[in-house]
Amino acid sequence: MPNENGVWVMYGVEWDDPECLHTVDEAIEYINEIGFLPLFKNEIPGFSLEERTVPEYWWSGNSTLDPWEWREIIARGSDIAYGKFFNKKAGFISKEWFPYFANYRRDGYDFDALWDDEKASRRLKKIMDVLETCDEIYSSELKKKAGFGKEGEKGFDGAVTDLQMMTYLTVFDFRQRKNKKGEAYGWPIAIYTKPENIYGREHVTSLYTMDPEESGKAIAKHIMEVYPIATAAQIRKIVGGRML
Description:
The protein is of the alpha+beta class. It has helices spanning about 25-35, 65-75, 100-105, 110-115, 120-130, 140-145, 155-165, 195-200, 200-205, 210-225, 230-240, and strands at about 5, 5-10, 35-40, 80-85, 90-95, 135-140, 170-180, 185-195.
């Protein structure tokens, strides 16, 4: 979804286009089929949910037709991870392909080991410490408990994005907050969790025995097979720069 001359422009297809995804079930099937997919248009033509849906239905509020609503439905499932996985922007990774991304992005490190080797910042550690005490948490609550805010640590959004890019954190759901009476209010906000809480640690770390570079090459090769027009430079921009 690029900004052209100050105007946000949506790219997509017509309803009767053979490449059009019409329902969330079709989107889920497609993501599982190709393995991973950014939410919005990016450097690789066609490699996004945006470019396979009808532009007019975005933000319509109709969960049957609105891809923005679909992302919430997909996030709360158990087969596809949702988060800022592609060049710090949102997208989806299937359960099958998540171990490749985890091994590549983490470079074989669990977060505790990353911290012990002084390869993680204090901001990231404060967020991950909170996730050790709860399986899931509202983004606003995570920010508060981790000590971010006006009087505390700065850069919460950037730190959360970094943890998603490193696959230590993912969006588990979107929910409205509740007042003291238990009544829901406001827009749905992100619920964060560790991917291990969704898939299990054994699955997430199942490729730790593989050289991280080889996991990166497997991701790049798969993109080239699914999107032959993708160049090495485009893949590096979207997925990362170490695999080619």
